[in-house]
Each structure stands twice: as structure tokens, then as C-alpha cells.
Amino acid sequence: MGIIFLPIDIDLSKLNFYQDPNAPKAPNWKNVWDGSFISEEHIKKTGLDQILNQLPFTKITRILFNPQLGSVLSHTDREPDDAYEEGEYDHATSVEPCGYRIVLTGRTDSLSFHNGEEWVTPELPSVPCCYVLDSTSAYHKVAYDPGRVVIWIRGFVDPEKHQELINRSLLKYSPLMSVC
Questions:
Q1: Does an H or E element contain 62, and which?
Q2: At 134, phi and psi to the nearest 5?
Q3: Closest to 64 measured CA to CA, from 165, 126, 149
């Protein structure tokens, strides 16, 4: 049995992120996200680095600002043939759950996971909220949620710090976790 969803216990009280209107656009994934890349300069300018420093990343390889355009069908976020840095996909599968997301705006109940038997819809404790999901094997979907905006983060994590954060988050949010 493994964790497929867990809210993360970090301090978002100073979160005041806004996207650079001139940021380069990310590929529009199946016409459901209107994503754009978040630059390192903009991360520092907006103070997002104070939030990201609480996460166990040793290297962020991709960070996107993702406003939702429509319903997101069942999928996993990571496929072996996607564009990854060398060793990134294998690293992700070895430390799952490690798909970190920050919901900036939207409902607390629009994300659903398949736990191996049925679809479950966990409740975020609040919005904004950071959560982690098993991104390489847990099928998930998002109901249409006009105004939902997510910061999508991918990269390499320090396994020890990652597990410490998971353990701390379990103490606070275990009733909200989903497992398969």
C-alpha cells in the first residue's frame, strides 16, 4: 500500500505569487492547461523561492504556472518517453509520491484519484495548498474548476528530506491522505 495523495505541511502564509505576463508558454497539454514556465528570476522576484525552499528539491527541472481550461481526463503525469533529464524518471519512480503541486486558486474537491478499486476525491484542507501525489503510477483526474490555478513542479528530491516532509505531513494530514 502506498500514498497516492497527501497535503504537505509547509507554510504558505507568505505566498503572493503572480505570473509574469511575458513568461514563455508551455505546451498546451490536451487543451486543459494554459501553462507557462516560471523563470528563476521571477521565482525570486515574487518570493516563491521562500515556498520552494521548504520542499525537498535538490534540482527543479520544470516549474509551470497552470491555469485550468477544462476537465482533465484520467492520466499519470509522468511517462517514460516524456522529456526528462538523465535519470529523472527513474529517480521519480524510486521516491514516489514526489509530484509536488501548489493549488493557488480553485475548489478543495476537484481532484480525484483511482486507488486501484475506485475513484476517490480527497479534500484539500484549504486553498492555497501544497500537496504531493504519486505522479508516475497513480491515475488522477480533475473536474472542471473555473479559476483553478496550479503551480506544477518536477525535479530531483533529496530522499531523506522528502521522507521527513512526508512523515511530518502525515502527522498533520493523515485523515486526508489517499492510498492504493
A1: strand 57-67
A2: -80, 95
A3: 149
